[in-house]
Q: What sequence folds into this?
């Protein structure tokens, strides 16, 4: 578990791990330079339970924290957990049993139960995560979801063999990892809701929606390159280039336009993205002759978000591009 200013939900998240029916584990928690009460909460739990190994240091970011814990972990299996989610008491027991029964699987996740800011149940939309590796491969090909990161358990050596988490894919480092692992091991999910996954406006995936969607699109492009037997141009990057630099990175004209279109369509529903840099990306997509699916509804959505000037600008862009 990596923690950065996670005091609001941290106590409950830690307690849910310590309450596991499978109790033979060490619990690495990095405090990644928190400025709130997170450090005190971690130390308080560590004083009561010797399984916790706290690492308190300056801020380096989630990817650096995950790779540090991978290197310091002493067990052959690693379970991921976030500081705002909740484990069901039998989560570890079920996943350890799955990996023991399926030695050809290197990663196993589980279905999840969505909860809101105050722990209230949220209705789920769409399909659950795929169960078998064959279903996982089909989900990759179709752009579907794979494994919920805070519900993942994996074999440490397999993850280290592919270089762990890659810094270039900040905010979607898990997807990039699953895509790289899919070619060297089998992956699946336990068909039980072993994690309560919290969704709320302040979480990382909401605050960094644009960067996450760009990284997701590029990670899938890199997967296609590897699958085709070509060199993955992202493998050694510390940071992804701007979208306009993707033609050069992948040595293929039209890549930048393709990614911009994917990201623009994905951001139509994100309030955070439409209030920030995602809005300009969407406008540039339309000026470039991109698809207009649902864009007039996005104008109305901007009004509801309290962004009337952006709504007018998007409407003007839609009207102008319709005349071209």
A:
């Amino acid at each position: 578990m990596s923690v950065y200013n996670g005091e609001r939900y941290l106590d409950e998240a830690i307690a849910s791990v310590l309450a596991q029916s499978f109790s033979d584990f060490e619990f690495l928690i990095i405090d990644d330079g928190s400025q709130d009460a997170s450090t005190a909460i971690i130390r308080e739990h560590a004083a009561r339970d010797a399984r916790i190994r706290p690492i308190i240091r300056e801020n380096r970011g989630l990817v650096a924290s995950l790779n540090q814990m991978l290197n310091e972990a002493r067990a052959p299996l690693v379970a991921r957990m976030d500081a705002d989610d909740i484990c069901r008491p039998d989560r570890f027991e079920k996943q350890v049993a799955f990996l023991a029964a399926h030695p050809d699987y290197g990663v196993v996740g589980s279905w999840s139960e969505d909860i809101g800011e105050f722990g209230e149940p949220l209705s789920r939309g769409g399909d659950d995560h795929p169960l078998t590796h064959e279903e996982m491969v089909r989900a990759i090909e179709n752009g579907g979801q794979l494994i919920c990161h805070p519900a993942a358990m994996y074999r440490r050596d397999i993850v280290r063999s592919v270089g762990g988490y890659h810094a270039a894919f900040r905010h979607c480092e898990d997807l990039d990892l699953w895509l790289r692992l899919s070619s060297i091991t089998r992956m699946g999910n336990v068909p039980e809701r072993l994690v309560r996954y919290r969704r709320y406006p302040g979480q990382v995936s909401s605050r960094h929606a644009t960067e996450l969607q760009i990284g997701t699109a590029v990670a899938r492009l890199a997967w296609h390159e590897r699958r085709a037997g070509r060199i993955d141009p992202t493998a050694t990057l510390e940071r992804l280039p701007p979208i306009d630099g993707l033609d050069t990175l992948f040595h293929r004209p039209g890549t930048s336009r393709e990614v911009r279109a994917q990201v623009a369509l994905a951001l139509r529903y994100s309030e955070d993205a439409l209030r920030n840099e995602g809005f300009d990306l969407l406008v540039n997509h339309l000026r470039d002759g991109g698809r207009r699916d649902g864009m007039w509804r996005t104008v109305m959505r901007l009004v509801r978000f309290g962004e009337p000037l952006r709504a007018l600008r998007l409407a003007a862009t839609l009207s102008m591009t319709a005349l071209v």
Remarks:
- Residues 53 and 316 are 56 Å apart (CA to CA).
- The longest strand covers residues 186-198.
- The chain is about 45% helix and 15% strand.
